[in-house]
Amino acid sequence: MAGRADGGPRTPVPYRGTWAEELLDQLRPTARDPRRLVAWLARTVDAAVCLRGGDGTLLAGEPITLDDTLVADVVTGRISAAAVQDAGRHLRLVAVRHPGRPQPRDVSTGVLAVARRDPFDRDAAEIVTHTAGVVELLLRERALTAAGQRLRRATADLRLAIMQLLMVEDTVAARRVAAGLWPGLLDTDTALVYVVESSPEERDRLAEECLDLTDGQALVVRCPAMDGHVIVLSPEPTAQDGLRTLVRERPAAYLGGSLRQSLAQTASAYGQAISALAVARFSPDHTAVYAERTHPERLMAPAALQAWSADVLRPLDTLPHHTRAELLATTRLGLQFTAVNAAKVLGVSRNTVRARMDRVESLLGTDFSDLTVRALAHLALNTQAGDAHAPVDGAAPGAPAVRVDALLTGPALRTWAHDLLGRLDQDGRDLRGTLRAWIAAGGNAERAAQALGVHAQTVREHVRGAEPVLEHRLLAGGTDLYEVVLAHLAAGDLAAPALGRANRGPSDAPVHE
C-alpha cells in the first residue's frame, strides 16, 4: 500500500490518463496559482511536495527535510535534477528557475522537491518533470504581473506629479517631466480639462478606459481628492466625444468639462470642470461643459478690474517668481475647495496649504474667514490668472488705486445682482434675509441662527432651498458661492470689505488679525 513520505498509509491514487490535460488546465487564467499546482501534484503522485525559492523560502506546499548539500548542488546549477532514496523515502528534486529578489530581472534557481514512500515509476517521474516546467511559467507570470502593477503605479504617480505641477503653474517642469514618457503631449499652449465621476469601485476601470480611448494624447489622472473622480487634461477637444460615450455606457457616471484654458490656468480649468460636473448630475445625458453664463466679473469694466486685481495682489510682487506663483495657485485652490482637498490635489499636506494661505492672508492684510473677503480675493486671483500675459493698465505703483466700490456700482452689475437676488423674494420663508445673515456669519449656520433668532437647522434648510432658486451651489462653496456673495455686495445688501490700497486706512492703521 502506498503512503505519504511523512505520514501513515494512504489509499493509492492510480495515475489518470488525463493527467496531461489536468496539468494544462492549471494554466487557465482563473487557475494560475503555484500553490494550487503544487497541491495538484501532491494528489496526483500521492506524495509530499514543497516548492522552495532560491533563498530557501517556502513558496508552496509543505516543508520537507532535505539534504543541504544536495539542494545546494541543484540551486547552484551543478545538477539540474536529482533522484535519491533516503530514510525509507524516495526523493525527486528538480531545479526551478524563477525571477528572484530584490529585482524582478534577477533570476534565481529554486527547488521543486517531491517525497513519497513508493519508488518513482516512469509516469510519476514524467509528471514531476513537466510540473516543474509549468511552475516556472507561473512564477515568471506572477513576477511579470507584479512588475506590471509597479510600472502602472509609477506611471500613475508620474501623471499625478505632472498635473500637480500644472496646478501650481509650473508648466516648464511639467513639460520636462512629460517629455520622457509622452513626447509632445504638453507641446501646446492651451488645453481642456474634464472630470469623469463614477463610484470609487468603478474608478480604476474607468481610468484605464480613459487611457485607452485617448491613446497617450491626454493626461489621465485619478483624482487624489475625490475617490470617484478621474481628471483628463486634453489638448484636443476630440477627447470629449469618447468620454461622453464612456458616460453613456454607465448609468451612474457623469462628465464635466472646462472651457479651453492656457496650461498655466489648469487649476482654473479644473474648477470649471468641477462646476460643470455639478450641472451634469441634473442633465439628461449626464454631461455638461462649463457654461458661459453671466458671471459678475464680465459685467465689470475690464481695465478697472485688472488694475484693482493687480493692486490687491501687489504685496506679493516682491516675492521670488516661483514662490509667488506657488502661493497664488495654492490660495486659488484653497478658496475654491477645502484645505484638505486642495492639499490632495497639490500633493502637499493640509498644513502646508494653510500655511501658504496664512502667508497670503498676512501679506494682503486681510482675513479669509470673512466670506466677502474670500469672494473678492477669489475675484482678484482669477482675474490675475486670466490676464497673466496681458498688459495691466493703470496698475503701476504710482497710479491711483481703484476702489472696490467702483467695480461694484456699475449699472450692469447692479442690475444683474438685483435680478439674481430678487428671485428669492418670491419665497415666503425670507430666504434672502437668511442667506444674507449666513454670508455675514462666514457661512456658519449656528452664528447666523443666533443673529436671526431661529434654529441652525432652519438656516441650513433656507440656504439649501436657495440653491435651486439661484441655480448656484452654496453649501459646497467655491465659485458659485462667491458669485452670490458678489451679488450681495453689488446690490448693497452687504458692505464691501477693505481689500487693496484704496480701501485700506493709513499705513499705521490697525489690521485685522
Explain the layout of strands and helices:
Elements: H1 19-25, H2 34-45, E1 48-52, E2 58-61, H3 68-75, E3 81-86, E4 89-99, E5 107-116, H4 122-167, H5 171-181, E6 190-197, H6 200-214, E7 219-222, E8 229-234, H7 239-248, E9 254-257, E10 261-262, H8 266-280, E11 287-289, H9 302-312, H10 321-336, H11 339-346, H12 350-364, H13 371-386, H14 404-408, H15 411-422, H16 431-440, H17 445-452, H18 456-470, H19 479-491
Parallel strand pairs: 9-11
Antiparallel strand pairs: 1-2, 1-5, 3-4, 4-5, 6-8, 6-9, 6-10, 7-8
Can you give a write-up of this model?
Helices cover 49% and strands 12% of the residues. It is an alpha+beta fold. Strands 6, 7, 8, 9, 10 and 11 form a six-stranded mixed beta sheet that branches. A hairpin with a 6-residue loop joins strand 7 (219-222) and strand 8 (229-234). Helix 10 (321-336) crosses helix 13 (371-386), helix 11 packs across helix 12 (350-364) and helix 17 (445-452) crosses helix 18.
Low-confidence spans: 1-13, 102-106, 388-396, 505-513
pLDDT averaged residue by residue? 83
Helical amount: 40-55%
Rg from C-alpha positions? 34 Å
Tell me the span between the first and last alpha carbons. Answer: 91 Å
**Biggest sheet details:** 6 strands, mixed
Total strands: 11
So what's the overall shape? elongated
Count of DSSP-assigned helices: 19
Strand content: 5-15%
- Name the structural class: alpha+beta
Order of helices and strands: HHEEHEEEHHEHEEHEEHEHHHHHHHHHHH
